[in-house]
Every structure is written in structure tokens, then in C-alpha cells.
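The data are quoted verbatim for completeness:
=====
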Amino acid sequence: MLDPSRVWKAGRDFGRDELLRAVKGRRFLTQTGILDELNLAGIAALLRGRGRMTPSMTVRFHAANSPHRTALIDAQTGRSFSFAEFDITVDRSVRMLERLGVRPGDPVLVMLENSAEFMFLQLAIGRLGGSAVSVSWRSTAPELAYLFENSQARAVFFTAGRADVVREALAASRHAVSGRVVRVGVHASEFPSYEELLSGVSDRVVVDEAASEDASFVIYTSGTTGKPKGAVRKFDRHSTLQILGFLAETPFRIGQRHLAVCPLYHATAFAFVGISLLLGNTVVLLDFEPASFLAALERYRIHHTAVVPTQLFRTLELGVEAVRATDTSSLVAMFTGGAPLSGVLASRIMEAYGDKLFNFYGATETGFVTLAKPHDLRVAPGTIGRVIPGNDVRLLDDAGRPVAEGEAGELYVKSGNLVTGYYANRGATNEAMREGYFSVGDLARKDARGYLFIEGRKRDMIISGGVNVYPREVEAVMAEFPSVGDVAVVGLPDPEWGERVHAFVEPRVGETIDERALLEFCRTRLSGPKRPRGVTVLDVLPRNPTGKILKRELRELADGSHRGSVADSASEGRSP
């Protein structure tokens, strides 16, 4: 028998969520300008879609409301697509998937570079009710074989230039997808072509959005510490509320232009592209290269872009004069995340581009959690900002107890935008959860003003002589040294202290680093256990395609690092 109190509570919570959604929805429509441009065709599309805000449905809405507005520009090829053309191509791609034998709930693996085809396929898989599995087009054959098996992909779409890798992965994989492996592009091979398959589908086909609860996106984490895990994300009313809460804190408006330069298989890039399409923005797709990035900002009169700090650092290496010589007057926001942003780098970026920098914290698994606006980055250098409404954040010690103000704890998040878990990996899902809160292993602290600061990864914390050392604190100090472009701090085994602090540094372009002067600089600013015991200069720090520094590779270099490193002789034999 139903418990009346539980029924009442469930009804109350549902009513509260719907009311909140309605209030936020109206504010969103008014603030962004969509309400002013809403017409009868757009209203009819919203009603047919029952108010759902999946990426596929937002394209359908704008195709009805403003069909001739440009949705996509592929800067690599010069092709452009209106919202009407975009919507039609997604419908045709759905029919093409059905002819391949893909059904609602089926995983479809997409291994493509940034391109219009990536977007068509991602949205078509969602419209069909399948699971779009995004993976790096740079994947090696062993990595790809693992992804075939782990995702249990029903079909595979890959960039044509990677045919040899796909062929090798298929031979090594125990999961059969033969007959449903499709190349995208003109390179000749035995695999069928997406373009040819699509040409056999009529332009007049119209597909209803699947209502299947199985529809999702699966984004594989970068795997910097082991095998990547597939984070499963669905689009429901709770995730919609989170996105609206984020947008309320930003200068996003209808009809703007967004430059997408991060890989679309990564959560950050796809999230901002999805938000841009939600607003009827034009998305410009471009592979990142510093000079072409600056040129695109000017040529396409870009309003906002999402990048990792490393990419902005690369543009500064062209010279502040080159940045200032670029007409960026249309730019209202540069969003950065996915890797630490030092206070020094944030200041340099804002000096070159103006106060248009927004630093956010989030993860594939959590969505957007915090946001630092330009003013925040000025008054609290290095901050990831304050918690975005709709998120509940806890900083906990190893026993699960809240840490005191100013102390570092593991960052746990609870919101309506959490992933449903890791695909086919219940153990990893359970390990990341604590009482409904999710952690990706980051350590953070909160100051008296409510600003949050990332201290590093829990697995990267260094324990030297029994003292906890947080790499981010050391890295922030070393980033202030004039010739240091970027820095990564790791713990190396030490027979006396357990671990010792070691720094790997990348110099700014055209400069050299005096290692002994750098160590002396640290000695005057860091207490004993935090001071690096050695420093290694590398031309370039190793990073994955999304800009994260690979500390695992740095530790692997450590055995031979002393041949090219300088030790802090003043600290030898001293207590940490």
C-alpha cells in the first residue's frame, strides 16, 4: 500500500521543481532575448516537443522559429548550414542509422574531428533514442579496441584518415560491429561512406524526437590515470534547470556567434556548443592554432568561446601586441576550464583581451559547478569562483566530515546535472558517490568570502615527512617567476621523508629559466615541506588533447630527471 506521506512529498517535490523550472525558463527566455523573437511556428515546435530541451530539440525549435539563421560554419571547409538545413540533415541521418540497423537504446561510437558531420551524427543518435559515444579521433588501435568492447557499440563512425587504426582495432576487438563501420570523408577504403549512405535518404523525411529514456550521450573521461570510463549523461528537466542557472550568470544572448576550438568529443566543448544552439547562436567550428584562433575571432565577429588555459597561453606566446592588434571588440566572454588557471596567467590574459575572462569548474560527471567572473579573478587570483545556484557542494575529509574554512577537502557535488554513472562500471560509480554527492577526486578549499580554490587531485597530494603538500599552492607560487610559462609539481619517492616535492617547468617562448634562481625564489615564499627539492626544465609539458598536464608521464620521467635537473642543495638533509 502506498505511504500517503511519501506520495505527498513526491508530489510536493515535483511541483516545486516544475515551478522553479517555469520561473527560470521565463527568466531565461526574457534575459537571452528569445522571448522577443518567438513566433507561432516556434511555439508550435515547443508544444510538439513537450518543452524538452535536448540538443536535438533545440535545433528543431530554431529550424521552425528562425529557419534561415546560420546554425553552423565549418571554418576548415567553408561550409555553412542554416537551422533548417541542420534539422533536415539530422532527420536524414536518423533514417540512415535505422537502415544500418541502429535502434533506440543502441550505443553508436563517434570518432570524428571537429566537423559538421560530428554534430549531425551526435544529434541524430539522440533523436533516434540511442546513446552517442564520443571518443578521441586520435585514439590508438589498442585504445579503440577497448572502447569498442567497453561501449558495446552497435555502429561506428570514424574520420576517414584513421581507417588503418580502425581496421587494426576491429581485428583486435572481441566485439563485432562488422557491416556497421562507416567512414566520414573522401579517403578510399573498404568501409562504406557516410556521405554515400546519406545521399540515399530523401530531403523531405521528418523524424519525431524519440521519447525513449535510453537516449543519452556517453563521454569517455580522458583516462590520465588508467582506462577511461564512459560517463553517461541524459537530458531531463533537472539538467535543464542547471543549464538555466549557469546561463543566468553569463552574457549569453540569442543570435550571437560561438567559436568552438576544443575537441567536440570533450564535455566542455560539446556543452558550450549545446548551449549556443539552445540560444540560436551560430557555432563556428575550428581546429585550434594560435594565429588562426585570433584570425577567427576577428573574421567571424565572435561573441564567446570556450578554451582550456593552455590555448590562451599559446596565443600570448604570439605577443601581447599580436592579440591587441586583433579586433576582438565583439567578444563578450572567454570561458576557460578543464585545467587549472593560475592567477598570473589570468591577469596576463585580461591585460591582453580585456576583462572578458570567465573561469569555471566542472567535470564530465558533474556539469558546471562554480563560475568566476572577471571581477572575481581580479580580487581572488586563482579562484574557480563561487558555487552556481542549483549545486550543493561539500568539502570532506577522508572520514566524510566537513573540513574547516580555509582547509582543503575532497570536493563533492550534488545537483540535477550529475551523470547517471559510469557505463557498465557500477564499482567506479559507487566509489565516486557519497550520500548522493559525486566526486571526481579534486581537492578544494573555501575562503571567508565564499571563493573556492582547487588545490589539486586527491591522488596527486604529496605527503612529505607527514605533512600534506598541495601541488596547486606550489605551482601558483612558481608561476609568478618571470620566465616560467607553465609548471607541474609532483611527489617523488624519498627514502627519508616518504615523498619530496619536485617541479617540472616550461619556459615562456624565447626565455630561459635559471633553475637555481627559481629555487631561491621558492625558498623565500614557501615553507620547508612545500619547497621543491628539485626542478626540471622541459621544452613542453606533456598534455592530453584537452590540455590537462599528464603528471603520470612526468613521474615516469623522474627516474632520469636528475640528469637535466637542479636540486635545492640548501635543503639537503634538512627537515621538510
